Protein: DUF2231 domain-containing protein
Organism: Fibrella aestuarina BUZ 2
Amino acid sequence: MESRAKALGHPLHPILIVFPLGLLAASVLFDGAYLVSDTREFTIVSFWAIVGGLLGGIVAAVPGWIDWFAIPAGTRARRVGLVHGLGNVGVLLLFALSWLLRRNEPGYVPDTLALLVSGAGFLLAGLTGWLGGELVDRLGVGVDEHANLNAPNSLSGRPASDTQSVVGSVRKW
Ligand code: HEM
């Protein structure tokens, strides 16, 4: 099922989710680095990584919802997409709470509750990320109709099924 929100021929959502996924996961790693080293700089990096992750998540959610609304009702993809989308809203809320809990602390040092809430967000993101993979790799959401190993370039304006101009010609890209 082809994505509705694309840039340069490719779905926007998988492009954008690297920011929230990477930054929020990095914040948990920096929290861990602080715990083992007691170095305050790590808590500051973690604090701002959460800010970037939350902003990136809000931006990435927009094409996610656009693609979800285009999934036909009554399908498994629609249900999985809903759990994935709402689960990721939950991920963002958990990290927002963790951020609120540390924002007034000297050096943004997280207390035990802030660490636990971030940890819960990290685990939930693992589950929702798996569901995202299920959506794309198993259910074909965001994949062009008739995608195949000889499909023409996404920028060519031709459908993926139009292999005539690729197979046996000099056009390689
Ligand atoms: C921070 C928020 C989010 C993250 C980190 C995230 C993560 C992901 C990941 C990892 C994939 C698989 C991408 C791939 O394998 O190429 C995916 C796909 C998908 N996600 Fe999300 N997601 C987020 C929010 C949302 C929301 C709010 C929705 C709305 C329902 C949504 C709907 C979808 C859909 C429909 C797909 C299938 C691929 C596509 O349409 O581009 N996602 N997401």
Summary: The chain has one domain: 6-142. The first helix runs from residue 12 to 16. The chain has a mean pLDDT of 95. The helical segments are 12-16, 18-37, 40-69, 76-102, 112-138.
